[in-house]
């Protein structure tokens, strides 16, 4: 979903939405380097790997072991363009992700 970081801009006919809210599968990952598990977004949202937060080891998508369900994320992005930021999240609902994007928008 495309949205405005400042909802007041939605009525401006010359303004473009600057936030994208999207869902992705949250997975539990296993890091064999430190023998621990951690949560990461579906590997196909960004790259086909995740970085272990404990040891910085690169965990490949094949080691994503347990899907935990859909979560919501947002990033800064103009329509038709690559994202301007890393994804923020996860959030339990689309509304929570949008509220966070609008609360944290740069003035």
- How large a portion of the residues is in β-strands, by DSSP E? 35-45%
List SSEs in N-to-C order: EEEEEEEH
Oligomer: single chain
Q: How far apart are the first and last residues' alpha carbons, in Å?
A: 21 Å
Stretches with pLDDT under 50, minimum 5 residues: none
Overall domain count: 1
Biggest sheet layout? 5 strands, antiparallel
> How many beta strands in the DSSP annotation?
7
Report the radius of gyration as a whole number of Å. Answer: 16 Å
- Rounded mean pLDDT is 85
Find the structural class using helix and strand composition: mainly beta
How would you portray this structure in words?
By secondary structure, the chain is mainly beta. It has one helix at residues 94-103; strands spanning 2-3, 19-31, 36-41, 49-51, 58-60, 64-76, 88-91. It has one domain (23-98). It is 9% helix and 41% strand. Strands 1, 2, 3, 6 and 7 form a 5-stranded antiparallel β-sheet that branches. The chain has a two-stranded antiparallel sheet with strand order 4-5. The chain is elongated, with a radius of gyration of 16 Å. The model has no long low-confidence stretch (mean pLDDT 85).
Tags for this model:
7 strands; mainly beta; 107 residues; two-stranded antiparallel ribbon
Structure at a glance:
With 107 residues, the chain is mainly beta. The protein has 1 helix and 7 strands, in the order E-E-E-E-E-E-E-H. Strands 1, 2, 3, 6 and 7 form a 5-stranded antiparallel β-sheet that branches.
SSE blueprint:
Layout: E1 2-3, E2 19-31, E3 36-41, E4 49-51, E5 58-60, E6 64-76, E7 88-91, H1 94-103
Antiparallel strand pairs: 1-2, 2-3, 2-6, 4-5, 6-7
């Amino acid at each position: 979903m495309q949205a405005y970081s400042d909802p007041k801009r939605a009525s401006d006919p010359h303004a473009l939405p600057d936030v994208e809210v999207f869902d992705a599968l949250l997975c539990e990952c296993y890091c064999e380097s430190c023998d621990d598990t951690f949560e990461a977004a579906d590997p196909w949202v960004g790259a086909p790997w995740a970085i272990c937060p404990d040891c910085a080891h690169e965990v490949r998508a094949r080691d994503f072991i347990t899907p935990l369900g859909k979560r919501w994320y947002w990033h800064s992005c103009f329509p038709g363009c690559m994202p301007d930021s890393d994804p923020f999240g996860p959030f339990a609902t689309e509304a929570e992700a949008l509220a966070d994007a609008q609360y944290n928008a740069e003035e």
